[in-house]
Amino acid sequence: MKKRNKLVIMTTALIFFAGISMAWAGNIVIKGSTTVLPVAQKVAEAYMKENPDVSISISGGGSGNGIKAIIDGTTDIANSSRFIKDNEVQLAVTKGFYPVPFAVAYDCIVPVVHPSNTVKDLTLDQLKAIYKGEIKNWNQVGGPSQPIVVISRDTSSGTYEVWEEKVLKKERVYPGALLQASNGAVAQAVAKNKNAVGYVGVGYINDDLKPVTVNGVVGSAETTLNGSFPISRPLYMFTNKWPMDDIAKFINYVQHPEKGQKLVKDAGFVPLY
């Protein structure tokens, strides 16, 4: 977390003191992570109210697709719930693109079950065993005698890649898992199945889901920032090269403590400050 915090401080300082001013108004295209999507939507709505001559279009599709779009030059901003990979940087450079990261929020990935499930806590080892298909019944982890229905994100998802790294320890989810294309789809699938387990960004937790603690730690803003919750991460917006004009002003707005960062909190995520 200290390394990521340092990145946030450096990036924020650079963009606030860059002194870039808008030369003209226009359109901004944003693509990528469904985790970052609620943040982007809230901030874009507020930004366009203050800047009616700017139009912002936003779509999801996953972090991998967002970064692919910045590499292909088909988006101005790529939302991502993970950091860009070395091979993606190399591919971008060969095409003449230079992705620049801006941390915009923090998030924790919370395991969720149906509200009727009696399970309240799972260890990282138990989660790994469930997602590898080694634990198949809820009674093996103190729950009811019912088969576990495993819900996971698809492999283009930054949320999946963080889960794969921090929970599965670079091993793959077992083939019987039901893959979903977004946080919202995971939330709906778990809400409709009393035997399901899934994982979503903290901003997607609602009354239809029961969040589960991990190693006895609740996923929250406090535990995300202090590093005690074991499945947490920064969220990013990437631009091609150092942003200018409308794109620079929008990134400034997202990171502004009294503007975008208040909307980050409203969206259910953890502000940078």
What would you say about this model in short?
The chain is built from 10 helices and 11 strands. It is of the alpha/beta class. Residues 1-24 have low confidence and may be disordered.
Report on this structure.
By secondary structure, the chain is α/β, with parallel strands linked by helices. The protein folds into two domains: 2-106 and 234-266, Periplasmic binding protein-like II (D-Maltodextrin-Binding Protein, domain 2, 3-Layer(aba) Sandwich); 108-225, Periplasmic binding protein-like II (D-Maltodextrin-Binding Protein, domain 2, 3-Layer(aba) Sandwich), CATH 3.40.190.10. It has ten helices and eleven strands. It has helices spanning 2-16, 37-50, 63-72, 86-94, 124-131, 158-166, 183-191, 221-225, 245-255, 260-266; strands spanning 27-32, 55-61, 77-80, 99-113, 121-122, 149-153, 178-180, 196-201, 210-211, 213-214, 232-240. Strands 1, 2, 3, 4, 6, 7, 8, 9 and 11 form a nine-stranded mixed sheet that branches. α3 (63-72) runs parallel beside α4. The longest helix is centred in the N-terminal third of the chain and has 15 residues, at 2-16. Mean pLDDT is 90; it is low at 1-24.
Task: Outline the secondary-structure elements.
Blueprint: H1 2-16, E1 27-32, H2 37-50, E2 55-61, H3 63-72, E3 77-80, H4 86-94, E4 99-113, E5 121-122, H5 124-131, E6 149-153, H6 158-166, E7 178-180, H7 183-191, E8 196-201, E9 210-211, E10 213-214, H8 221-225, E11 232-240, H9 245-255, H10 260-266
Helix pairs in contact: 2-10, 3-4, 9-10
